[in-house]
């Protein structure tokens, strides 16, 4: 797609958060001009590209924004897909496709899609309100998920027994059987307009017990070859069944019996691929750009074992962010700190991440723990 490198080519991103920021950092190498739309005037991208302050869910705002772009992509799913459909009708390219953003951003339709396409996933029930969750108490233990607008651990409640039903969401959602899993893994897969598909090696995620956010990520995942092959096969099936153009993060459970089940997907760069910037030949951000520009894919080979630690705002602190332990951490060989440019911190807010690379896996784990224990975001 040679036009991508014309001086007047403009790539629009709906969302100006950290994912957009890292996409811009990668796109600078390809001489891409970016335009950003975000509701926060101080969003992480606001000083890095042409920036428009506005609501991502407002039809007219998205339409106006899209008019000046040659190609439009997203870094968050909660956007006005009606406007994106209209832009496609007017000849604009939008990847991932608006109808797929719509399907994926509602966990109810996402789960039904897996069922229809024979993609392995946990057993589930659709619920319209809290009352329907309570009526299905025999389905417990289960996870109650909001259909829409849940992100970064929000919109998810674990209901283990009857007394937990008070926590159920009084909105359209689903009840999903609580899986007694051995590991949580992810595969990032990409597809371009030509239908070519490539994927990154499996990674292993460890979640924060309270915030339901990724606390650690290790790559490669410590799993058997057969489980890894199955996860790769499933991830490719999901993107091919969707016919999605772009990047897709496929989060999966590995059960105690060794079965691989799809948990959720995200049609964009994802937390489970941050480490690819340092640890793989091609990063997830460059791969997303290659996919939506219909370019040949980059090599996804891992250069070194890696870990990623999410840098979250400390519990009990809100206000102007201060980073404690920064010098100690950057003094460790193989450590790469990425700060997201968010001025204000609050408990569990994603303020940055740290990638660690090391030839030795035990050393890698020790360094990851050191980073988590040492680098703190306070106010």
Short key terms for the protein model shown above:
single chain, 379 residues, alpha+beta, Rossmann fold, Dna Ligase, domain 1, D-amino Acid Aminotransferase, Chain A, domain 1, 9-stranded antiparallel beta sheet, 5-stranded parallel beta sheet, 22 strands
Structure characterization notes:
With 379 residues, the chain is of the alpha+beta class. It has three domains: 2-94, Rossmann fold; 123-177, ATP-grasp fold, A domain (Dna Ligase, domain 1), CATH 3.30.1490.20; 181-378, D-amino Acid Aminotransferase, Chain A, domain 1 (2-Layer Sandwich), CATH 3.30.470.20. The chain contains eleven helices and 22 strands. The chain has helices at 18-27, 59-67, 81-89, 98-105, 107-117, 130-135, 225-242, 276-279, 284-292, 326-330, 361-374, and strands at residues 10-14, 33-38, 50-53, 71-74, 93-94, 124-127, 142-146, 156-159, 173-177, 181-191, 197-199, 203-207, 214-219, 246-255, 260-266, 306-312, 319-320, 322-324, 335-339, 344-345, 350-357, 376-378. Strands 10, 11, 12, 13, 14, 15, 16, 19 and 21 form a nine-stranded antiparallel beta sheet that branches. Helix 1 (18-27) crosses helix 9 and helix 3 packs antiparallel against helix 4.
